[in-house]
Write a structure and sequence with these properties.
Blueprint: E1 6-15, E2 18-28, E3 33-37, H1 44-52, E4 59-64, E5 67-68, H2 74-81, E6 84-87, H3 99-109, H4 115-128, H5 133-136, H6 145-156, E7 163-167, H7 175-192, E8 195-200, H8 203-209, E9 212-217, E10 220-226, H9 236-243
Parallel strand pairs: 3-8, 3-9, 6-7, 7-8
Antiparallel strand pairs: 1-2, 1-4, 4-5, 9-10
Helix pairs in contact: 3-4, 3-6, 4-6, 6-7, 7-8
């Protein structure tokens, strides 16, 4: 049996009295695109940040290629992090840098390339997401929201990562541009042969980019299966979520 690219076992995390992750078990196979769905405050972002090493779990194990990350020394964690690419929810572009420098940031800062070495790579990655070299000379403020997402995607794939993380990749985009971004994600992940882990509440996006979907609710994975099986999951939480119904086992707190 193939070793999972990413595996989480019994991962727990609390912030003060609030228990956010209550024993998350999850595995992602090499080359697989896994999407985690769930409502706000259910633990999606904390799960992602735990794998990225931005949050240290209180308990449990997280491995990438069999290497334990929880409690790992800085050098070991940095070596694993070199395998990662990340598309942030808000783009997280540097306003003071031209687009090509944004894309090349990891190559220059992380890989030690000179700007002259990194620029052709950055322009190639921009081309892969449908942006010409002229865009590389612009600044983020001169771009539309959809173009900023494309630049963020180009940066995420700049170093040909083995694992790409997507944090709400279609948030703030109109439905047509969201579909364009979904198509680009599928194309880029497939081209690289990368493993992808995405968190989203956008079911159109989840259906388009996922091989497998897992649902998190109250800090635990309540369902996990092939993307094509989600409409017949037999899980009341999943059924309520994907159909956007107010009535069901998921109770939303509504203020007065």
């Amino acid at each position: 049996m193939t070793e999972p690219k990413i595996q989480m076992r019994g991962v727990e995390k609390a912030f003060g009295p609030k228990r956010v992750l209550r024993g998350v078990d999850l595995s992602v196979q090499p080359g697989e695109s896994l999407v985690i769905i769930g409502g706000s405050g259910t633990g999606k972002s904390v799960t992602l940040k735990s794998v990225l090493g931005l949050i240290e779990p209180d308990a449990g194990a997280i491995t990438v290629d069999g290497v334990e990350l929880v409690g790992a020394p800085g050098s070991g964690r940095r070596e694993t992090m070199r395998k990662f690419g990340m598309l942030f929810q808000g783009g997280a572009l540097f306003d003071s840098l031209p687009v090509w420098r944004n894309v090349a940031c990891g190559l220059i800062q992380g890989e030690g390339m000179s700007p002259s070495q990194a620029k052709p790579i950055a322009l190639r990655k921009l081309a892969q997401v449908g942006l010409g070299p002229d865009v590389g000379e612009l600044f983020p403020a001169e771009l539309s929201g959809g173009m900023q997402k494309r630049v963020g995607l180009a940066r995420a794939i700049a170093a040909d990562p083995e694992v790409i993380f997507f944090d709400e990749p279609t948030t703030g985009l109109d439905p047509i541009m969201a579909d364009v971004i979904n198509d680009l994600i599928v194309k880029c992940v497939t081209f690289l042969g990368a493993t992808a882990l995405t968190i989203t509440h956008d079911m159109a996006s989840a259906r388009k980019i996922a091989h497998r979907i897992a649902m998190i609710h109250e800090g635990r994975m309540t369902w996990d299966g092939p993307a094509g099986a989600i409409d017949r999951s037999g899980n009341a939480h999943v059924d309520q979520f994907i159909n956007g119904r107010a009535e069901g086992p998921i109770k939303m707190l509504v203020g007065a």
